[in-house]
Known about the structure:
The protein contains twelve helices and twelve strands. By secondary structure, it is of the alpha/beta class. Helix 1 packs across helix 2 and helix 8 runs parallel beside helix 9 (192-206).
Amino acid sequence: MTVSITDVARAAGVSASTVSRALRGQPGVSDEVRAQITAVAAQLGYTASRSASSLASGRTFTIGVLVPYVGRWFFGTVLDAAEHVFSAAGYDVLLYNLGSAETRKRFFTKLPVRKRVDAVLSLLIHDEEESAALRSLGVPLASTVGGARPGFTVVGIDDRAGTESAVRHLVNLGHRRIGMISGASGPLHWTTPVERRRAYLDVLADAGIAPDPALEADGDYTVEGGERAMTELLAVSRPPTAVFAQSDEMAMGALRALRRHRLKVPDDVSVVGFDDHELADVIGLTTVAQPVAGQGAEAARLLLRQLDEPGSEPPGHVQMPIRLVLRETTAPPRPRGQ
């Protein structure tokens, strides 16, 4: 015999509406009463009906997630962490992979998420027209990329501070020929490579080092791109003694290129990455650690909080901590002649 919400309410000695609020994690129910209701529901084997809950609350219990590259490590890690938080709260994820300009234009023209989702987590950098289109949905919005944006809760890091710590570390070791592998050809409106390049140039200027355009190469935020970019840097007339890669995956490609050219790291060339990829510790890569999964989980939690507390003010911009992790790929440059 099917157990109803009324049966749970009668057994717990509360109203059906209190049972509904308690089991959906909504406010207005004490922790003690919530625990009692949860225990009674489990004892009776009660399972809430998704369709009934949707009708009662007006929710779809679905979160829309927009990504530029679902197969890239950064985006995949953010997505996985966010999905775990949504799933634990009883929400499904509706994923839109907007990797091309055509699919992106079609999405923002038609807005297929309208009336299909309760909130949107966007891992895209939007122009104002796209941002306005998402705001027109009238649902909570969050992102883990870019800076503060009206109408969005943005969970991110300080790209400039992270880059400054990496490049300054190389300067302090004594390096003067410092190359950079960037992701200039990244996703549409991607501001990360721009911010990190500015910080790289600022540190060089502070150290009295004249920038050399020949020491910058595009690595496309991939291992293959990093290998290709490092090969380009080694071909210049005066190759770098150290390289800052804007992502760990590009740094891994750089290490592969250096190994292929029979150069030792860090004896011949020092390398610093950015991210603290799950393999960074395995290969001993010095890098700037950022909580990639933590950003996805926090953005998901903040979206759910807005759904449960619709009258509350969105937190706006949340900045996560970063730190420079020193490992085996950086050292002072060799004296000339050695």
